[in-house]
Design a protein that fits this description.
- This protein is α/β, with parallel strands linked by helices.
- It folds into 3 domains: 216 residues, FAD/NAD(P)-binding domain, CATH 3.50.50.60; 102 residues, D-Amino Acid Oxidase, Chain A, domain 2; 65 residues, no CATH class.
- The protein is 38% helix and 26% strand.
- The radius of gyration is 23 Å and the shape is globular.
- 45% of the residues are buried.
- Bound molecules: flavin-adenine dinucleotide (FAD).
- The site of flavin-adenine dinucleotide (FAD) has 40 residues, from helix 1, strand 11, strand 14, strand 15 and helix 9.
- Flavin-adenine dinucleotide (FAD) binds next to helix 1, strand 11, strand 14, strand 15 and helix 9.
- InterPro entries: FAD/NAD-bd_sf, FixC-like, FixC-like_C.
- Could be required for the formation of a functional nitrogenase Fe protein. Probably accepts electrons from FixA/FixB and reduces a quinone.
- This is Protein FixC.
- It comes from Methylocystis rosea.
């Protein structure tokens, strides 16, 4: 029997759930948020880069008390082979602005802070509470949840599913399919602690400045994947992730890749002498626009990673989670204000509002990119990075070989790896997917 009723139940206290619960509670709705972890953030893994703009829409003065690590002034992109990297670095003093645009954060600390804001807004937040199933009426309308607590049935007009990438509740209830293995990456991450001065000297940082590195190439052994190195105040977050389907196919292990990544000469120098204190593994939805499931139905909406809202090309996820959570809450509030029921027809407003936001516009723009990168993984993540490294060595090594001959050697090595039509085809496909 259902003991208690709420206007809305939010399942999950990650970025999406906290954004949704905060917005709903601030608008005066009776909100229950349920989180299976010991506290908000205890189960969550992120690199982690935080995007200010999306948080400002929820907590405009967050810089006053949020646990932020470093504001980012430098971004590096590396294309790696086994011994070298070819880099594109962008550093600007303009990022030393009064209201910096990107920060590094540590999710366990950040989510706790975020959750406190949700509680201050008036939501009831219950941690160490796992939602076991969605309660549905005879017509399939979601009318509440059953938790692992004693007498744990709770009713609500609407349930916001912010349960993260695996999204077991939604799939169990038949609201969407289990994400395909070729649309989900498994990432592993370690935290490397170093004295602050050492870290700042290695990355050329002053004060709270931060730098991040994103890396592709032979580190993923021909699989679709990426490595990352992010600077915190006194630690470096370092990790790598590849598609689950590729791990299955190749028999490679995430931990094996991480070890190799750490041993790469370009990386080893940055983490030398560090103390490793944490190790975590987590999934990331990477299927993009085509993998997005049904986002709403009778009595429910799905937000954040559970809705596969992740822009893998730009390495953005938490901001899409916060935005979808906020927009879902705003849609629910509008429906509630009109005293309309939380039917599928009415909750379509959430999708309409999301379509008008950067979330869907960006994901739609790159809709062909995940397929292309997966199908052409060997070329984009192995062959081309190796060729670029070869070309760079050849270009920079001064050994009396005439330059014209060097250029011919480079050109021939590209042709030996891929025919001219293959090269042009890849360039064309990449440009088309990027349009
Ligand atoms: C290694 C890694 C690096 C990343 N780096 C970045 C980055 O730098 N920047 C960025 O923007 N994004 C990054 N992301 C993506 C980002 O972490 C996610 O997009 C974001 O956390 C999604 O938020 P969410 O609230 O949807 O899901 P989550 O943060 O996963 O939260 C889901 C919550 O639901 C809870 N939950 C699940 N099931 C239940 C249940 N049945 N009952 C109760 N509670 C439940 C979980 O415990 C969890 O707290 C990264 C991800 C990974 C794995």
């Amino acid at each position: 029997m259902i003991e208690e009723r709420f206007d809305a139940i939010v399942v999950g206290a990650g970025m999406a759930g906290n954004a949704a619960a905060l917005t709903l509670a601030r608008k005066g709705l009776k909100v229950l948020q349920l989180e299976r972890g010991e506290y908000s953030g205890s189960k969550n893994v992120q690199g982690a880069i935080l995007y200010s703009d999306m948080l400002e829409k929820l907590v405009p003065d967050f810089r006053e008390d949020a646990p932020l690590e470093r504001h980012l002034v430098e971004q590096r992109f590396w294309m790696m082979d086994d011994n070298s990297h070819t880099g594109l670095h962008y550093r600007s003093d303009e990022f030393n602005e009064e209201r910096p645009n990107r920060y590094t954060i540590i999710r366990a600390q950040f989510d706790k802070w975020f959750s406190k804001k949700v509680q201050e807004a008036g939501a009831v937040v219950l941690c160490e509470t796992t939602v076991l199933e969605l309660l549905q009426d005879a017509y399939g309308k979601v009318i509440g949840v059953r938790t692992d607590r004693k007498n744990g049935q709770v009713g609500a007009d609407v349930v916001v599913l912010a349960e993260g990438v695996s999204g077991l509740l939604g799939t169990r209830a038949g609201l969407r399919k289990t994400p395909d293995k070729s649309n989900v990456a498994l990432a592993v991450k370690e935290m490397h602690f170093l004295p602050q001065e050492t870290l700042e000297a290695r990355f050329n940082l002053r004060g709270d400045e931060g730098a991040v590195i994103e890396a592709v190439g032979t580190i993923s052994q021909g699989m679709t994947g990426m490595g990352f190195i992010y600077t915190n105040k006194e630690s470096i977050s370092l990790g790598i992730g590849c598609l689950v389907a590729d791990f299955e196919k190749t028999g490679q292990t995430p931990y094996g890749l991480l070890e190799k990544f750490k041993q790469h000469p370009s990386v080893a120098a940055l983490i030398a002498g560090s103390e490793v204190k944490e190790y975590a593994a987590h999934l990331i939805p990477e299927g993009g626009f085509k993998a997005i499931p049904q986002l709403y139905g009778d009595g429910w909406v799905v937000v954040g990673d559970a809705a596969q809202l992740n822009n893998a090309i730009h390495r953005e996820g938490s901001n899409l989670a916060m935005t979808s959570g906020r927009i879902a809450a705003e849609a629910i509030f509008q429906i509630k204000s009109r005293r309309d029921p939380m039917t599928k027809e009415n909750l379509a407003l959430y999708k309409k509002m999301l379509d008008e936001s950067f979330v869907m516009k960006d994901l739609k723009k790159y809709r062909d990119m995940p397929d292309l990168l997966h199908i052409q993984a060997q070329n984009f993540f192995l062959t081309y990075p190796q060729l670029v490294s070869k070309a760079m060595t050849n270009f920079l090594r001064v050994d009396g070989t005439p330059k014209r001959e060097k250029e011919k050697t480079t050109f021939r090595s590209f042709l030996a790896a891929r025919s001219l039509t293959g090269l042009v085809g890849d360039a064309f496909r990449l440009a088309r997917a990027w349009r």
